[in-house]
Design brief:
Layout lengths: L23 E10 L2 E10 L8 E2 L3 E8 L2 E5 L4 E5 L4 E4 L7 E4 L6 E10 L6 E2 L9
Antiparallel strand pairs: 1-2, 2-9, 3-10, 4-7, 4-9, 5-6, 5-8
Length: 134
Amino acid sequence: MAAVVGLSLGAGTAFATPAGPGVSGTIIAQTTVGGKDYVLRQITVPPGQSTGWHYHDGTLYGLVQHGTLSHFDSDCESDGVYGAGSTLTEPSGANRVHIGRNLGKADVVLDVLYVLPHGAPLSQDAPNPGCDFE
């Protein structure tokens, strides 16, 4: 399939951070094989919005279809800028908190394959780790 993207939005260090206004996701396909859920989803992040701070219980593989995704880790540092046609991978674990931001003027559209333990949520909200952005 493709590669990955993260999802949730933040403010402050004490609260979970949901995705920004207008961020949406549509499940395209899903199946379970050998105790793992495989979910293919299309995610749209409008200009100026973000996925919110979050992590995943499994690995994600994403493909940027449109726009440019700016990806940040819990050190508030950019760990990648991904334009149309780019792929990315998000490893699993609560120690891998991240946020995807759309700093451009066009929607970011991503196709994401989630490979998760059976029954796990697509993402887990996390608090802003202290960054001056959400």
